[in-house]
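Table S2 (text version). Query chain:
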Amino acid sequence: MFDALTRRVEQNNRGWKTLARIKAIAETGMRHSQVMRLQLHDMWLDHDPPVVLVNQPGKDGRRHSKPLTKQGVASFRLFIEKNAFGKFSQSSVYKSWKLACEDAGVPFFNPYRLRHTWVTTLRAEGLDLADVQELLGRTSAKTTARYAMVTTARSFCNSRPSPGMDTVEDTRR
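Corresponding structure-token output:
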């Protein structure tokens, strides 16, 4: 998916901010509204471990941090480089995502599913529900459990790349 979106952006030399925003969502499980409220001082990319702070979580969430993989750091460096800060149209994200799905030959799915995929991947890799709840900034374990549908094939999921970056798991079972 991301390869198709990246090719489209490179061919047209437009959509860089959208690409950076979608990668940020995939790497952190953030909502689009949380991505809109990010500021440069929320990104600690050279910290050990690198993290992004969610200072304005919204939806009755709490402030929390999200650790980043190497791919996550690269995604947020792109975010900074392309100045993807601030408000953006959710419909523009949908449009770009829909075209990338078509290019990749994948049925369209809501980009919000990237949040579900991130959580499901964390659970499949062995994180317990309380840890996932903390990473989401959730106050309710019940809501977290709804997001965190775990497949029975843990060994398959453990061999997968970073959450949401190369493959996307459909969590609508």
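Notes on Table S2: The chain has one domain: 2-158. DSSP finds nine helices and three strands in the chain.
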